[in-house]
């Protein structure tokens, strides 16, 4: 279980950092042009590709055992940390209250983002099903 926990933490940190950069670009450049939903739809494929590649790299390099339990732990740990960090940012940095933050999940852009976050959490399991535990060459 320990490799899954460690990999989940690293997975979260790398993808969260990438998401923070992409989110800044989304808010500052894309939202004024495309609107909130259009901006999220534009950003989502990029963060999902980054998530997929980071997950693959971690699984190959850690290595995270090719077991359902290890991959589940990795995905759940990363997801819990991601949701906690997102909530903390909303509340402590952007001044939302907990109720407002939770109610934001009624909007289409937030639902799209949550769908992407769930995919992020499932990638370790998807890669398990695809036989992903090979070392990356190069």
Characterization of this structure:
83% of the residues lie in helices and 0% in strands. With 138 residues, the chain is mostly helical. The two termini are 28 Å apart. Helix 1 (2-61) crosses helix 2 (68-93) and helix 2 (68-93) packs antiparallel against helix 4. The mean pLDDT is 91. It has one domain (2-129). The chain has four helices and no strands. The radius of gyration is 16 Å and the shape is globular.
Radius of gyration: 16 Å
Strand content: under 5%
The helix/strand order is HHHH
Main sheet summary: none
Q: Uncertain regions: pLDDT < 50 for 5+ in a row? A: none
Helix content: over 70%
Question: In total, how many domains does the architecture comprise?
Answer: 1
Q: What is the helix tally?
A: 4
**Mean pLDDT across all residues, rounded?**
91
The outline comes out as: globular
Supply the helix-strand structural class.
mainly alpha
- End-to-end CA span: 28 Å
Primary descriptors:
138 residues; 4 helices; 83% helix; globular
Layout: helices, strands, pairs:
Blueprint: H1 2-61, H2 68-93, H3 98-103, H4 108-129
The gist of it:
The chain is an all-alpha fold. 83% of the residues lie in helices and 0% in strands.
């Amino acid at each position: 279980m320990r490799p899954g926990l460690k990999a989940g933490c690293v997975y979260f940190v790398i993808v969260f950092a990438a998401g923070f950069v992409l989110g800044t670009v989304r808010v500052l450049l894309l939202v004024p042009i495309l609107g909130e939903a259009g901006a999220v739809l534009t950003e989502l494929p990029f963060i999902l590709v980054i998530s997929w590649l980071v997950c693959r790299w971690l699984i190959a390099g850690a290595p995270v055992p090719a077991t359902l339990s290890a991959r589940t732990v990795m995905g759940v740990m990363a997801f819990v940390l991601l949701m906690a960090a997102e909530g903390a940012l909303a509340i402590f940095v952007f001044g939302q209250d907990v109720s407002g933050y939770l109610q934001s999940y009624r909007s289409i852009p937030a639902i799209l983002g949550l769908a992407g976050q769930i995919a992020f959490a499932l990638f370790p399991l998807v890669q398990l099903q695809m036989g992903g535990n090979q070392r990356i060459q190069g």
